[in-house]
Design goal:
The chain has about 375 residues and is of the alpha+beta class. Helix content is about 55%, strand content about 10%. Helix 4 (about 100-110) packs across helix 6 (about 130-150). It starts with about 25 loop residues before the first strand and ends in a 7-residue tail after the last helix.
Length: about 375
Amino acid sequence: MKLAKSLLTAGLLIGLMTGCTANRSAIITVNGEPITKGQYETMLKRQIESPQFKQLGPEAKNPNGFMMLMAKDRIVNELIVKALIEQQVKEHKITVSEDDIKAKRKEIAEKMGSEERLNQILKENNVSEAQLREDLINEIKVDKLVTATSDVNVSDKEVSDFYNQNKTSFDRPERVKAAHILIEANSDKIKQDVINADKNGKMTAAEIDKKVKEKMDEKMALAKKVREEAVKAPEKFAELAKKYSEDKMSAVNGGDLGFFPREAMVKPFADAAFSLKPGVVSEVVVSEFGNHIIIVSDRAAKGLQPLDKVKDEIKAFLVQQKKISALQKLFEGLRASAKVEYVDESFSPENIQKAIRDNMQKQQGAAQNAPMTPAK
């Protein structure tokens, strides 16, 4: 069980960054600063386009329906949080660098199990790279703000006490530490690229399939070539990953994926990684992501991890818990002293809650007045 959670993965601040919009009409002001209709609509669009919302069906998009009103209530609250936090970020002159963003993404990927697993989760939840970048920037700002305004230090005694009270959390499955080189090869994507390139639609289905096979064969030939280079010089694996790997996030770190359990990876990758001895380069492994060349550098046996192996992880977790608590207290104080004005009264929490209650009463009335179907 991995303990450390970021503010982003804790779900406190996902979606607060909304970007610039053309519509600048204020619907709310927070300490005199506007929240615009465009900002609201950007977040609402993101909510509506999420896979979870789409599963609710077209009726969920009714502006006066229960689901849209609930979304409106949540978004308004998040926009106010964002405004208050941004004001504090400016006051403390907090900035975010590209190195900050890269480090945070790497941290998130490690918590997910691997860069591949993070990419898979992003794809499943229809989260774009631009959206993730906004969330990471927002989290970094908040993290720096909390650190600047609160004491979040953790003592060795706190770490030891936590370990002794939660030993079952450190009974781990077998894990390996591996790096990989990915040569992307997805036949469906290649086929679509071939079709798109055939502007006049002259290619037959057989010709398209032949072209796809040629492209897939080229990808495999490249993977085999790279593997041969890695086998000849395993010590240069990191250099090869930086040069060839199309998993860009792990490539900058020499293909390093860190430690991961078997279930964190797709089966072909996991089967290969857990069968390798440290220092041995794998055969080309084919998965849904493409062609992988894998090398394992370390293994961790199944069982209770000793304190010295997990103390950094525990400390990170406890620091994060203190940050979350500090953030909640900071926001409560900011909200209590903030001057929030609802320029468009339809966005006030009281009016939204009233609309929700009216909607529920209307639905209940309709259900009670619906004609009963005679028993057959």
